[in-house]
């Protein structure tokens, strides 16, 4: 039964076992019911047999009375006593009896009968009499002309002996069948628990590399939902792991491009044909390092978001304040790119964390600035519409073709139209935004940009309070 | 030689272009598959360097497309992924060689020379023509055991003609092999370079086919 259960011994330590409990409870219940049944049968038998014994006692009494009457009429009293003594009453050696006449004299008594009346002087019918150590069941009756009375007695011990034989037989029966029942119960339960054992073994075999579904096989209806739920969970784990693996691979590959650029520019610098070429190569090496750093920063930010973070209690965050902060932080960069960056704020509040919302907003503004050419406009705004707080970043930049709108939230997807190394994003910004939007139970939509060009990202914090509290 | 570089990443593209120019190649750089197709239709390239992770149309698709059109141009692909499946897919799509990011520009140059050499049916890297020996990797020319100094343009014209021995190359074709789109083409430049080559290597090597262009004979001229 407990053969080869690999490494779940720690889990079974100190835990109650359903199987053991079932076996014990069933055994106790079966034995108890058996005992109860035996007792009732015994009681019933005792009552039934008492009546039977009484009947046969009465019959014997009348039989003896008839015999005695007859013998006395034929041969006189002395002969009768001898005859009875000699013949005995067949099968009645345990019985004792007295014959009294109507004058109250003892006419005859069997060998072990006392000389005093066994059933009291004038009691007729059944009675209990005390006879030393043993109780005596007595019966007294007159003959038809009331000249002779018989008093017959049967020791209780005799009756007991017979009922005890029945009980003994029951006990032997029980002694034989109870272990058999126990064995049967144990076997049935052990068999019924097999699927659980297979299942736990199958689950124990699952590792990070081996996460296949557990086969449903021949499991009963009671266990199937557990396995189905487990398989669903395994599926989700597989998905997550696959996601993580491809993310790590993508991240590594994404880093290769700026690294390749840095290396190539370094070689260009080595082989520079003039000072101008050398200067440019050096500049580009710096740009490549900056880009790698941005990519690493974003990767770290994403990793921090990915780590199921425990929310410290959310607070009321003033979106207007946030927008103003972020806009002033990005103003210098915008001016270098010759982009007009404006903030249009109306009071709006969101339950959450300023840190998260800052990351979200920073990525959206960053993106807008990167994909907007010189002399463009980027407008950041917040407010409340239809009772829902929103953040919006609109630009007059290159825009996003319909076909690419779903792709842009994918990690490492980049739109590159400007051909300017300064405009390089990491391809992670929007996937970070998406992650945060999901975390806040908010919605992000891609809408029209400004001046008939570009694109607008609008985040609506519907249901945020419910999500975060 | 003239090379088409297809690289979406502006920073990397710029470095590769400059690096190949430093190795005396003429480089045209485009940033997506559509532009690459257009360039291949309009100009003649000795080889193509292709980053297979392009936006919009990925490099693999572009490669299959141009191979389906019967273009024989030697192609070296640049890939960020170094797993075997990716390399196999790249080679099966019609690439002649691949190089994994980050790579060495000298190695890229060597691989380009190698694919061009293989495309012209030579096993050795040296081009030998009679007593003339050209080493494209070291960019040296030896005639009768004596090294002959050549300028980059002269060297380019010489190797281009040697690689197409027995074929007449027009002035236009030779010019295109020398200059990328961004270069300013000087007039009569091919004639000037051929003139200098004849002075350095002997009059009979390069033949003038009047009204058609120049060629180097497959048979070796003696005397």
Describe this structure in words.
The complex is a heterodimer of chains A (469) and B (223). Chain A has 469 residues and is α+β, with helices and mostly antiparallel strands. Chain A contains 10 helices and 12 strands. Chain A is 54% helix and 16% strand. Chain A has a 5-stranded antiparallel sheet with strand order 2-1-5-4-3. A 5-stranded mixed sheet of chain A has the order 7-9-10-12-11, covered by helices on one side. Chain A has a two-stranded antiparallel ribbon with strand order 6-8. In chain A, a hairpin with a 4-residue loop joins strand 1 and strand 2. Chain A is rod-shaped, with a radius of gyration of 52 Å. The N terminus and C terminus of chain A are likely disordered. Chain B contains 8 helices and 11 strands. Chain B has a 5-stranded parallel sheet with strand order 2-1-3-4-5, with helices on both faces. In chain B, strands 6-7-8-9 form a 4-stranded antiparallel sheet, covered by helices on one side. Chain B has a two-stranded antiparallel ribbon with strand order 10-11. The two termini of chain B are 30 Å apart. With 223 residues, chain B is α/β, with parallel strands linked by helices. In chain B, helix 6 packs across helix 7 and helix 6 crosses helix 8. In chain B, strand 6 and strand 7 form a beta hairpin. Chains A and B meet through helix 5 and helix 6 of A and helix 1 of B.
Spatial gap, N to C terminus of chain A: 49 Å
Number of helices of chain A: 10
Termini separation of chain B comes to 30 Å
The total of helices of chain B stands at: 8
**For this entry, what is the oligomeric state of its chains?**
heterodimer
Strand content of chain A: 15-25%
Major β-sheet annotation of chain B? 5 strands, parallel
Q: How do the helices and strands follow one another from N- to C-terminus of chain A?
A: HHHEEEEEHHHEHEEHEEHEEH
The gross shape of chain A turns out to be: rod-shaped
Radius of gyration of chain A, in angstroms, nearest whole number: 52 Å
Instruction: Give the low-pLDDT segments of chain A.
Output: 1-9, 417-423, 465-469
Helix content of chain B: 40-55%
Strand count of chain A: 12
How many strand segments of chain B?
A: 11
Going by helix content, strand content and strand pairing, the class of chain B is alpha/beta
Q: Roughly what fraction of the amino acids of chain B lie in strands?
A: 15-25%
